[in-house]
Amino acid sequence: MVPSLSGSILPPIVPPVFPATNFANNILNTMQTVSSGWIPSIMMVAQKLFLDLAGLEVCWSMGEFILQKAQSGWEALVIATAKKILQLSIFFWIVSNANTIFWLILNLFQSVSADITGLPLLSPGTILQTGVNFVSEIESGVPIAAFVSPTVTFTVAFSNLLILLSFVIVAGQYMVTIVESYIATSAGILMLGFAGSRFTAQFADKYFAYAIGVGIKLLMCSVVVALGEGISTQLSAAMATPGFFAYSAIYSNLAELVGISLIYA
Fold first, then answer.
1. How far apart, in whole angstroms, are the C-alpha atoms of residue 43 and residue 262?
2. Distance CA 164, CA 156 (A)
3. Is residue 137 part of a domain?
């Protein structure tokens, strides 16, 4: 029977839920729900693994101390054992509250992103909708008479395809990062069980570094997405100016829009 620490001093952290307004957001919400369901069983395995390794660690440490008692005495053995048990108890608390702790870290990075960009957490669905709206503005901005030319028709269609593809790529990368955070805060908790022994603690250390790396990646993606939203707003205002899609300027302006979109991706 693995003991559990139900009286945590940490408040429960609920992962962000995206508005169920499109397919991408629904997928993320489903993945978040599924990954959250893994936590109880994974937590039990991680705790058991930790306690097993911790027991071996205490036995190994006591064996070392006993062999050295001639130099240090029994008092040092008691002190060293107490320190080891205290250290392992702290790590066991971290394992038992890993999901909450890591969501606190991820929320910290998201708060930094919101402070930098001035925008709340955006969803992949919002990015896709921005791309669709952007393409629609191009379609409506080009004069109908210009579509008589096959060259203009092909250029507009191909440009819209590249622009929409750019937004799809950005939304996909952002979506993968969010899914990665779900996995890191659920299935990844198992790796913390290796913190029970000095011989396997390196695996837990790498997981800590990985989880923080996911938070940094989420921060960078959020900043890039927010910048893209701002650029899209400015370009939409530029497209609304008279003459932007005039026949003499349509090719150069479309090339500029495509270039900016590809750089964004």
1. 43
2. 12
3. yes
Radius of gyration of the chain (CA): 27
CA distance 116 to 224: 11
pLDDT 10s digits, 126-162: 888 888 888 888 888 888 877 778 888 888 888 889 9
Q: Give residue 68's pLDDT band: very low, low, confident or very high (50, 70, 90).
A: low
**Residue 15 belongs to a domain:** no
Residue 7 lies inside a defined structural domain of this protein: no
DSSP string, 55-119: HHHHHHHHHHHHHTHHHH-HHHHHHHHHHHHHHHHHHHHHHHTHHHHHHHHHHHHHHHHHHHHS-
DSSP annotation string for 175-192? HHHHHHHHHHTTGGGGGG
Residue 80's pLDDT band (cuts 50, 70, 90): confident
Token look-up 């952007």 returns 134
Tell me the C-alpha distance between 95 and 56, whole Å.
Answer: 18
pLDDT value at residue 14: 62
pLDDT at residue 69, as a whole number: 62
- Number of domains forming the structure of the chain: 1
CB within 8 Å of 76: residues ≥ 6 apart: 65, 69
Domain that holds residue 219: 23-264
Which pLDDT score is estimated for 3? 45
Q: What is the pLDDT of residue 118?
A: 74
On whether residue 5 sits in a domain, the answer given is no
Contact, 245 vs 235, CB < 8 A? no
Q: Residue 72 — pLDDT band, cuts 50, 70, 90? A: low
Q: Which helix (H) or strand (E) holds 51?
A: helix 23-67
Q: What is the pLDDT of residue 4?
A: 45
